Please model this.
Amino acid sequence: MPKLPDDHCTLREHFAWVYGTLAMVHAAVVEGKIRYESLHFIIRGRFRKGYLSGKMKMRPLHDDEKTKIVHATTCCYCGRAAKLSLDHLIPQLKGGADAADNITYACRSCNSSKGPKDMVLWLASKERFPAILVFRRYLKLAARWCEDANLMDIPWNDVPDAVLPFDKRSLRVEWPSLTEHRLWPDPPDT
Ligand SMILES: [Zn+2]
Model:
C-alpha cells in the first residue's frame, strides 16, 4: 500500500494520490459497491504509478463538459434545481479562468455562501464532500493550472499558498466512507 503523500512530496505526487483515489471511488460508486474491493485499489495504484511516470494523464476536461448535458441542471454543490446562477468552480477572484470548463451551475444560496472560497474547503466547513464529478473537474482545473505554472515538481510545503487559485489543503481533505459518495449531489428533500 503506497504511503499518503506528506509535506515533502511534490504537488504531482499529491495530485496522483487524490485523482487516483477519486478514480477508485468513482469505479466503486458506479458499480454500486458498499465496500472497496482489491480491483478498486488496483485502479488507484495504476493511475498513481502511470501519472508519476508520465504514461498516464487525467482525462480531458471536455469529458466533464458532457456532465452539463447528461446530468439534470441542478446546483453542483447541493442538488437544488431552483434559483440557479453560474459559478466559477475555481474562483475568478483567485485567478480561475472565465471559461466554460470552469463554470458550473450553483444555486444562489451556495453561490453566495461559497463566494471566493476554495470549493473543497468550503464544503468541508459544512461537513460535506464534493460530488465525484464536481471534484474531478476541480482537480483537473487545479492540476492544469499547476502544470502551466511549473509548480508540479515543487514539494507541497514549499508551494506558496498566495500564488495558487485553489487551496492546496484540498489535496489532503478527509474522505468520507464509500457509501456517502455521490456522482452528482442528490436533490434536497425539501
Ligand atoms: Zn446549492
Remarks:
- The helical segments are 11-30, 38-53, 62-70, 108-114, 119-125, 132-148.
- Residues 34 and 179 are 6 Å apart (CA to CA).
- DSSP finds six helices and two strands in the chain.
- The longest strand covers residues 84-88.
